[in-house]
Design goal:
Residues 201-386 form the YrdC-like domain. The chain is α/β, with parallel strands linked by helices.
Length: 752
C-alpha cells in the first residue's frame, strides 16, 4: 500500500466559510486520516492516506472549495507516516508570524432565507439566522483565528440544539461561529428617541407599523445604524433631510427585491448580478421616471443608489406594504456612522423618532459599499461592507502602515508581502471620525499582530493622517498626494514599468507648495516627473472657496479679465466686489492647478450651484445635466513652459461665457465643456507619449468619478491603441490614496 503523510497549510479566506467542515467531509469520502485546524488565519492539515486518494482529496479541496473561500497560497511538506485512525477537527491555535486573511461580512443565503419564512421552522422570523455560507464575519471579529470566542457572539452561549448543529459534520452549521437561534442568540427591541422601551410582542412588526405611519427609525444593522423611512413618503423624507442637515446629497434606497429595483431603475445584466451578489452593495443605477418616488430622494441626479436586503432583519422589514425604504447612514451630517447603542441614542435622538436595536455588539463599524458599472466593469466608489478587508500582493519585506489622506480616508497595512486595505472611514476633520480612524488602525494592527517599521503618509503635513504618523515610531515616508493616486492604480493593475499618469482631483499639496489637481506625470512607483498640468489660477477664499463655487468662478473670470455681464447674478454685488478686491491684493488666496475647481467654476457660471452642501456637489450636478447628443467642444490651447505642457483655460472659459451670453442651454454648455476636457486630455497624452515613448496610461483622482469624462478619454485612447488603466477595485477618489502610499513605500524600500 502506498501510504503517505503530509502537513499542508492553506492561506486565504479560509475561515468562517465552512472550509474545515468541508475538508472533514471530503476526508471521510476519500478515506483520509489525520486532522484539520485553524492556525492564525490559515487552515492547517495533517493528513495520511494512499497516494491517489490524497491527490484526489487535494484537488477537490483546492480546486472546488466552498463558495466564499479564496485560496491565496498553499504549502505542502512530506512527513514520516504516523498511522492516524480517524479524521478530526482540532482546536484552533494562533500564529503570529503566518500569513493572515480575514473574511468579509456576507449577505443571507437562500437556505437561511427559506428557514426565516417557514412558519414551521424554529428560526421563523429570527433576524440573526446564519450559517457557514452567510452572516457576520469582519464586523464582529475581535482577534484571529476566527472562532466564536474571538467574536462578539462569545456573549451568547449556544443552546443544546445549536450546539448539536455546530458539532454535526453533516449540518451546514457545522462550526458556523455566529450560530444561534431565538432561544440562545441576540434579540431585537424598540426604543423611543428618549430611550424608553416600547412594549410590543413583535419589535419588527412594530417597526414596520412605525415606518408605514411616516416615522423615521434608526435601525441597527450588520455594521452600524441606518436611518430609515418610507421612500414613498415625501414629507418624511423632507423631515429627514432637515433633521440630518443634509439638504441635497442623495439618499440610498433599499428595495424589497429585484423586481422593485427594475420598476424604479434601468438595470443591465452586470448591474443585476452585482445587486444580487452575496456582497449586496449599493449600486448606482439610472433612474426611470417614477410617480411613486419623490424627487427629494436624489435631487438633480440621473441615478439612484439602490441595494437589496442583506440580513434577515432587512428581509423581515419588507413584510408590510412598503416596497422601498430610504436607508441612509445612521449619522449626523459628516459624522461617522453610529454603531454602539448608547452613543446612537445620544447622537441620533434628534433625527430618529424611534430605534430598532439589538444586543449583539458590533466590534468594527462598516458602512455600505457603493458600486457603479463603467464600460461593463464593476467599479468601486466606496469600499466597505462585503468588500473589506481588501487583501492584495505588495512586495515589501518590512511591516508597514500607510495612513491615507484626510477626506474619504482609509489606511493600509503590509505584512508578509500582502497589503490590507481598511474600510472607508470618512473625513478625519470630524472629531468622532478621527476617533474611529484611530480605533480602526488599532483593530487591524491587533488582528495582524503588526509591528510597522515603515510609516507612509501624505506630503501635506497639516493633514491629520500625517500628524498621526508623527505619533508612532518607524521610518517616515512623505508621499506626494497625486503620485499616490497614480501608484494606487498601478498597484491595482500590477504595473511596474513607467506610465503616463493623468490625475484629476480637487486638492493636493504639490512639491512647489501650490495646490495641484490637474496633473500629467511620467513615472514609476518610486518617482515621478510632472510633465504637464492645468495652468495655475489664483483662487480667493481658502477652504471656503471649495464650499462656495461662486468664489472660484470669480477667481477664474478675474484671471481672464472678463467683464461680469450676465453671469453670477445670484451673488450679491458687494460679495463679488469684496472677492475681487481680495484678489487684487492677494489676500487669503492660493494658486491651484485643480481640474476639480475648474468644474466647480463652470457649474457656478451656469448657476447650477453657488454653495455646496456635500463634497463635489457642483461638479456632480454639472455632469448630471449634460446632453450626450451634443458633440461640439470649445477651442483650447496647450502651451509649454520650461519643458512642461500647460493647459490654458482662458479660451475654454471664454467659449463657455459666450454660450451663456447667447443663452445656450446649460445641458449643451455642460456637454461641450466635458467634451473639451476630454479632447485636451487626449491631446496632452498624445504629446507626452510622442516625447517619452510610453504606452501605458493610468487614470486616477476624484474627477474620474465622472463616468462621461472617463468613458470619453478611455474610448479615445483605445482607438489609438494605447494601453489604458483606470480604477475598478480600488476607488479612484481619496479612499485609494493609502494603497498608493504603500506601493510607493515598497518601491522606495527597494522591493516594490
Amino acid at each position: 500500500m502506498d501510504k503517505r503523510r503530509y502537513i499542508i497549510e492553506i492561506y486565504g479566506i479560509v475561515q468562517g466559510v465552512g472550509y474545515r467542515p468541508y475538508i472533514y467531509n471530503q476526508a471521510e469520502f476519500f478515506n483520509i486520516k489525520g486532522w484539520v485546524s485553524n492556525q492564525g488565519s490559515a487552515v492547517l492539515l495533517d493528513i495520511e492516506g494512499e497516494g491517489k486518494a490524497i491527490r484526489d482529496f487535494l484537488i477537490k479541496i483546492i480546486k472546488n472549495p466552498p463558495n466564499l473561500s479564496i485560496i491565496e497560497k498553499i504549502q505542502l511538506i512530506s512527513k514520516e507516516y504516523k498511522g492516524y485512525i480517524d479524521f478530526q477537527i482540532k482546536f484552533s491555535s494562533s500564529d503570529e508570524k503566518g500569513l493572515k486573511f480575514i473574511g468579509v461580512d456576507v449577505a443571507t443565503c437562500p437556505q437561511c432565507l427559506e428557514e426565516i419564512f417557514n412558519i414551521h421552522n424554529p428560526r421563523y422570523h429570527y433576524p440573526f439566522t446564519n450559517c457557514t455560507a452567510c452572516g457576520s464575519r469582519y464586523s464582529i471579529l475581535r482577534k484571529l483565528p476566527y472562532d466564536r470566542i474571538h467574536t462578539t457572539m462569545d456573549d451568547f452561549q449556544m443552546c443544546p440544539s445549536c450546539r448539536g448543529e455546530y458539532n454535526d459534520p453533516a449540518d451546514r452549521r457545522f462550526h458556523a461561529q455566529p450560530n444561534c437561534c431565538p432561544n440562545c442568540g441576540p434579540s431585537v427591541y424598540v426604543l423611543t428617541n428618549e430611550g424608553r422601551k416600547v412594549l410590543c410582542t413583535d419589535p419588527i412588526q412594530k417597526t414596520i407599523d412605525l415606518l408605514q405611519r411616516g416615522k423615521i427609525v434608526a435601525i441597527k444593522g450588520l455594521g452600524g445604524y441606518h436611518l430609515a423611512c418610507d421612500a414613498g413618503n415625501q414629507e418624511t423624507i423632507k423631515a429627514l433631510r432637515k433633521r440630518k442637515n443634509r439638504p441635497h446629497k442623495p439618499f440610498a434606497l433599499m428595495v424589497k427585491d429585484i423586481e422593485v429595483a427594475r420598476e424604479l431603475c434601468m438595470i443591465n445584466e452586470i448591474e443585476e448580478k452585482i445587486l444580487l451578489s452575496n456582497k449586496r452593495p449599493i449600486v448606482l443605477l439610472e433612474k426611470k421616471a417614477s410617480k411613486t418616488l419623490p424627487d427629494e430622494i436624489a435631487p438633480n441626479m440621473k441615478k439612484l443608489g439602490v441595494m437589496l436586503p442583506y440580513t434577515p432583519l432587512h428581509y423581515l422589514l419588507f413584510e408590510g406594504t412598503i416596497t422601498a425604504l430610504v436607508m441612509t447612514s445612521g449619522n449626523r451630517s459628516s459624522a461617522p456612522v453610529q454603531y454602539e447603542n448608547h452613543e446612537a441614542i445620544e447622537n441620533l435622538r434628534r433625527i430618529a423618532d424611534y430605534f430598532l436595536m439589538h444586543n449583539r455588539d458590533i466590534h468594527i463599524p462598516v458602512e455600505d459599499s457603493v458600486i457603479k458599472v463603467v464600460n461593463d466593469q464593476e467599479v468601486l466608489v466606496r469600499r466597505a461592507r462585503g468588500y473589506i478587508p481588501f487583501t492584495f500582493p505588495i512586495n515589501i519585506t518590512q511591516e508597514a502602515l500607510a495612513l491615507g489622506a484626510e477626506e474619504k480616508s482609509t489606511f493600509c497595512a503590509a505584512q508578509n508581502q500582502y497589503g490590507y486595505m481598511s474600510q472607508y472611514l470618512g473625513d478625519l476633520k470630524d472629531f468622532d471620525t478621527y476617533g474611529i480612524y484611530e480605533k480602526a488602525i488599532g483593530n487591524l494592527v491587533n488582528l495582524l499582530g503588526l509591528k510597522p517599521k515603515v510609516i507612509a503618509h501624505d506630503y501635506n503635513g497639516s493633514y491629520l493622517s500625517s500628524q498621526y504618523a508623527e505619533s508612532i515610531a518607524g521610518k517616515k515616508i512623505a508621499v506626494q498626494h497625486h503620485h499616490a493616486h497614480m501608484v494606487s492604480c498601478m498597484v491595482e493593475h500590477r504595473l511596474f514599468s513607467p506610465v503616463i499618469g493623468v490625475v484629476f482631483d480637487g486638492t493636493g499639496l504639490g512639491t512647489d507648495g501650490k495646490i495641484w489637481g490637474g496633473e500629467f506625470f511620467v513615472g514609476t512607483r518610486e518617482s515621478f516627473s510632472r510633465v504637464g498640468h492645468l495652468k495655475y489660477v489664483t483662487i480667493q477664499g481658502g477652504n471656503q472657496a471649495i464650499k462656495e463655487p461662486w468664489r472660484i468662478a470669480i477667481s477664474y473670470i478675474h484671471a481672464i479679465d472678463y467683464k461680469y455681464k450676465k453671469v453670477l447674478r445670484e451673488v450679491d454685488k458687494k460679495s463679488i466686489y469684496t472677492v475681487r478686491q481680495a484678489l487684487d491684493q492677494n489676500l487669503n488666496c492660493f494658486e491651484s492647478s485643480s481640474m476639480g475647481r475648474l468644474f466647480d467654476c463652470v457649474a457656478a457660471l451656469l448657476n447650477l450651484r453657488q454653495r455646496i452642501t456635500y463634497d463635489a456637489q457642483a461638479a456632480i450636478e454639472l455632469e448630471n445635466i449634460l446632453d450626450p447628443s451634443v458633440k461640439e467642444y470649445y477651442s483650447y490651447h496647450i502651451g509649454e513652459e520650461n519643458g512642461v505642457y500647460q493647459i490654458d483655460y482662458k479660451s475654454i472659459l471664454m467659449g463657455v461665457l459666450k454660450d451663456i451670453e447667447d443663452e445656450l442651454s446649460p445641458s449643451a454648455v455642460s456637454a461641450k465643456f466635458h467634451n473639451t476636457i476630454g479632447n485636451v486630455t487626449l491631446e496632452m497624452i498624445t504629446r507626452i507619449k510622442e516625447r517619452y515613448h510610453i504606452n501605458n496610461i493610468v487614470f486616477s483622482g476624484g474627477v474620474f468619478e465622472n463616468i462621461y469624462l472617463l468613458s470619453y478619454v478611455v474610448k479615445g485612447l483605445k482607438k489609438r491603441d494605447y494601453d489604458v488603466y483606470y480604477h475598478q477595485q480600488i476607488p479612484t477618489n481619496d479612499s485609494g490614496i493609502s494603497v498608493g502610499q504603500l506601493g510607493i513605500a515598497a518601491a522606495i524600500e527597494g522591493k516594490g
